[in-house]
Each structure stands twice: as C-alpha cells, then as structure tokens.
Amino acid sequence: MLAFTTLSLLYLRYFSIVLIALCSFMVGFDLMDNASELPNSANLVLIYIMYKYFYAIDMMLPISLIFAIIASLVELVRSNALAAYYALGYSKSRIMAPFLSVAGLLIVIYIALHATNFARSNEFANNLRETSQFIRPTSNLFFTHEGSYIYFGNLYPLSKRAEDIRIFRFEKGTLKEALSAKEAVYDNGYWNIKKAHLIRPPEGFDLKALGITTEAKENLKVLRDFKPKILDQVYEGKANFTIGDGLDALELLENQNVDVAKITSAMYRIFITPWFAPILMVLFFTYAPVSARFLNLSFFSFGAILVTLIVWGVLFMLGELSNNKTLIPEMGIIAPIILLCCVMLWRLGNPLRRVRVKSRQN
Predict the structure, then answer these.
(1) Which of 311, 313, 314, 332 is closest to 262 using CA atoms?
(2) How many C-beta atoms lie closer than 10 Å to residue 19's C-beta?
(3) Which residues 6+ apart lie within 8 Å of 28 measured at CB?
(4) Between β-strands 148-156 and 190-200, what pairing exists: parallel, antiparallel or unpaired?
(5) What is the per-residue pLDDT across 267-293, written as a single tens digit (0 to 9) for each?
(6) Which pTM does this prediction carry?
(7) In whole angstroms, how large is the CA radius of gyration of the chain?
(8) What is the CB-side half-sphere exposure of residue 84 using CA atoms within 13 A?
(9) How many helices (H) and strands (E) does the chain have?
C-alpha cells in the first residue's frame, strides 16, 4: 500500500507539472496571436483565458498522462528505485498498477467533463473574442425534419428562441402547405408558435378546383424534441458536442435521413480516443530499463516523447478526417486504438514467451 501511494503521488506530481506547462504554453501563444482582437473588458479577457485553459486541458490531458509516466520512469530508473522494487519482489504489473489506476481515474473524470459545457469551451472563447458574447446567434439555418423543410432566419440557443420561421411540408414530393411565423420559442419539447400564417396550394391543376387557401393559425407546436443546441451544433457542422447533446442528436436524427457521421465521430473521440494514453504507458514501461547502466535514459526519453507525439498527431489527423467525413468514424477512430491495443498485447506476450523458452531449455 505504501508503494502504491508513493508511486501514485510521484505520477500525480509530474502529471500536474506537465499539464500546467503545456496548457500555459498553448494559452500564451494564443494570447500573443489574438491580443489585438480581445474585448476591451478585463472581465471578458479573464473569462476568455479561462475558457482557453479549459480547451487546452481538453487537448493536452491525454498527452500529459504519457509525458508524466515517461518522467516518472526516468526518475525511478535514475534513482535505482525501480531496481529496488524488483529486488523487493514487486512484479511489473504491481509497479504499473498505481500509474494505470491514476491515469484511468483521470480519463474517467476527463470524459465526465464532456457532459458539461467544458466540451464547448473553445467555441465560447472564440465567440467572446469575435462578438463579446458566449453564444452568438445562428443565421439562415435550413434543415429537414420528418419530410418537412424548415428555415430559421435567426436562432438564439441561449434564450431558446428563433425568428423568421418558414416550414414547408411535403407529401410524396408535392408541397402540401407552407407555414410562416415571425417567432417561435422552444418549451416542453416543442417549438411553440403564437401566431402563424398558413398557405395551402391547390390540390391539382383543374381550373374549377379550389385555388390557393390561406389561414391564420395560433398556438402551434412543431418540431418535437428538436432542441436549440441540436439545431445550432448539428446543422451548423460543429463538432464540439457535449455528451448529452450528442446522444440526443443521435436518437433524434437516426430516422431523419440525416448524416450523423460527425456526431458519431465526436462521441467516439470523447469515449475512445483518450484511452490511447494508458496503452502507450504500458508499452513504454515494457521498454524501460531496470537500471541506467543498461540504456541511455536521454535516448529512452527522447524516443518515448517522439513516439508519443507521432501517435498523438496521427490520431488527431484521423479524427479530423472522420469529422470531415473523409473516413468513417470506425476506421478513423476505433481502428487505430484497436491496432495500438494489439501492439500492446503483442509486446506483453513477448517476455512471457521468452521465459517459457528459457525454462524449456533449462
């Protein structure tokens, strides 16, 4: 138990140092690049910096987990603490358990944070820089729902309000009615329209048939469960979903003939991509020398950092290709993690095979 606590605290110390350093570096460069565009209000600038730190944590936490294990291994090897643990009868799995336990807990917290607006921190920061508002209205929104075509002139997600609404309902490719309204408010799962103007075209082209009919409507409820956040994010092509919004969008749009690849990709990146960190942690641990005499620690740490950056960059690139629908999410996000996991299992199996071969020879 003492060894578990000692190793956990060692890992947490290096993780905190690395994460703070990387986030500060990222936010500092952003401030230098966008200083002239920031609002004049000191309060808004502080809020902007806070959201940028949240975004930096979102980007850098998985890679910080790996850098922290590299730093921890270098210290353990350099101080001969790793050799001492082996001499006391600790196995590799027992030594690795504190690092993986802490990393797993941090990843679970990291995923849980995406159920909040933490996932949209970069969007909020950019909105503050450009308009001095957290969420700016979305204009000229056009989408489909249950065979109808809907147009919103302006959508205000925070106030759950839309202006200049047009709804065109079709049946078998024929326009049946067109509804227009100045304003709609989302409440109790529906978009509520107080006053609307309804136009119905003639049923056929018979000159004796009834022509265009118009009708005033009041207190209409339309677009069930189409939340403002779903409209704002899905149809604007944004990929920074919270977990709740993403799951709601998938449930709502699965039968609407709407491509949900971007939503699926966002969910995979939240739940699956961060787990590449523990996989690389295990891989690097299998390559760590027992003593500094057996391997150049500078070479080991440089190689581990280089491999981490390459893997992280490839995963990020594949994730962006999945977001842009160039690759299907399963190939761009899930397949690379499975491949890394197979490499880890192969690496873990190699020492076992060597031990079996040596025992047979003896």
Answers:
(1) 332
(2) 20
(3) none
(4) unpaired
(5) 899 999 999 999 999 999 988 888 777
(6) 0.83
(7) 28
(8) 8
(9) 12, 6
